[in-house]
Design a protein that fits this description.
- The complex is a heterodimer of chains A (114) and B (114).
- Chain A is an all-beta fold.
- Chain A is built from no helices and eleven strands.
- In chain A, the strands form two sheets. In chain A, strands 2, 4, 5, 6, 9, 10 and 11 form a seven-stranded mixed beta sheet that branches. Chain A has a four-stranded antiparallel beta sheet with strand order 1-3-8-7, with no helix packed on it.
- Chain A starts with a strand and ends with a strand.
- Chain B is 0% helix and 52% strand.
- Chain B is built from no helices and twelve strands.
- The radius of gyration of chain B is 14 Å and the shape is globular.
- In chain B, a hairpin with a 4-residue loop joins strand 8 and strand 9.
- In chain B, strands 2, 5, 6, 10, 11 and 12 form a six-stranded mixed beta sheet that branches. In chain B, strands 3-9-8-7 form a four-stranded antiparallel beta sheet, with no helix packed on it.
- The chains are: A mainly beta (114), B mainly beta (114).
- Chains A and B meet through strand 4, strand 5 and strand 10 of A and strand 6, strand 10 and strand 11 of B.
C-alpha cells in the first residue's frame, strides 16, 4: 500500500541552524501539507502546497519557514534559523483531492533544537 | 476560537470495557468533513474514518463505531471491548469547504489496562 515517507526520523540541531525536513508524498497525490505537534499538544497546520505554490498557511508559518518541491517526488520544509520553540514532531501529509481532504500522514520527523 | 473540542483529556479503562470519546465541532459551512485519527505511542498518525456532513449514518468497523449528530455538532467515537493495543491518543479533526487544512482537537489519551 502506498505511503508517505519522511526523513530523517529524528533531527537534532543547534539553535540558529537551518534544517530541511524531507517528505516523499504518495505518487499520484497533488496536495501536500506540513503539520507540527509540540510534545503533548495537538497537531497544528502549518502550510499546504498545490501546483508548485503555497495554497494556505497558518500564522505559525512565518518567514523562517519555506516549502519546496524540488523534483517530482520530494516535498521539503526548511526552517532557516531554528529556535528552541521549533522543537516538535513535524508531519507531512498528502491527498489526491482537496474536496474530501483525505490526508495521508507520514510517520513524522522529531526535531530537537538545543 | 476552537473549531474542534475534545473535552476529555484522558480516559482510563480496564480491558474489555467500552470507551466513548466525545468530539464537538463548530462550523458555519454546510459542507464539511470530520475525521478521527489514532496516534499510538510510536507517534504516527493513523487515519480511522472520514465522514462528510451529508452522511449522518452511524458507522461500525469491527470494534469501532462512530455516532454523527449534526443537531448537536458531535461526532463521537466508541471502542467496544477495548484492548491494550487501543491505548493511544485519539484526535478528532474538521475540514471545511474551500479549506485545505485539517483542524485538530486537543486529543484524548486512552489508556487500556490489562
Amino acid at each position: 500500500e502506498p505511503e508517505v515517507t519522511q526523513t530523517p526520523s529524528h533531527q537534532v540541531t543547534q539553535m540558529g541552524q537551518e534544517v530541511i525536513l524531507r517528505c516523499v508524498p504518495i505518487s499520484n497525490h497533488l496536495y501536500f501539507y506540513w503539520y507540527r505537534q509540540i510534545l503533548g499538544q495537538k497537531v497544528e497546520f502549518l502550510v499546504s502546497f498545490y501546483n508548485n505554490e503555497i495554497s494556505e498557511k497558518s500564522e505559525i508559518f512565518d518567514d523562517q519557514f519555506s516549502v519546496e518541491r524540488p523534483d517530482g517526488s520530494n516535498f521539503t520544509l526548511k526552517i532557516r534559523s531554528t529556535k528552541l520553540e521549533d522543537s516538535a514532531m513535524y508531519f507531512c501529509a498528502s491527498s489526491e483531492f482537496r474536496d474530501n481532504n483525505e490526508q495521508f500522514f507520514g510517520p513524522g520527523t522529531r526535531l530537537t533544537v538545543l | 476560537a476552537q473549531k474542534v473540542t475534545q473535552a476529555q483529556t484522558e480516559i482510563s479503562v480496564v480491558e474489555k470495557e467500552d470507551v466513548t470519546l466525545d468530539c464537538v465541532y463548530e462550523t458555519r459551512d454546510t459542507t464539511y468533513y470530520l475525521f478521527w485519527y489514532k496516534q499510538p505511542p510510536s507517534g504516527e498518525l493513523v487515519f480511522l474514518i472520514r465522514r462528510n456532513s451529508f452522511d449522518e449514518q452511524n458507522e461500525i468497523s469491527g470494534r469501532y463505531s462512530w455516532n454523527f449528530q449534526k443537531s448537536t455538532s458531535s461526532f463521537n467515537f466508541t471502542i467496544t471491548a477495548s484492548q491494550v493495543v487501543d491505548s493511544a491518543v485519539y484526535f478528532c479533526a474538521l475540514s471545511e469547504t474551500n479549506d485545505y487544512k485539517l483542524s485538530f482537537g486537543a486529543g484524548t489519551t486512552v489508556t487500556v489496562r490489562a
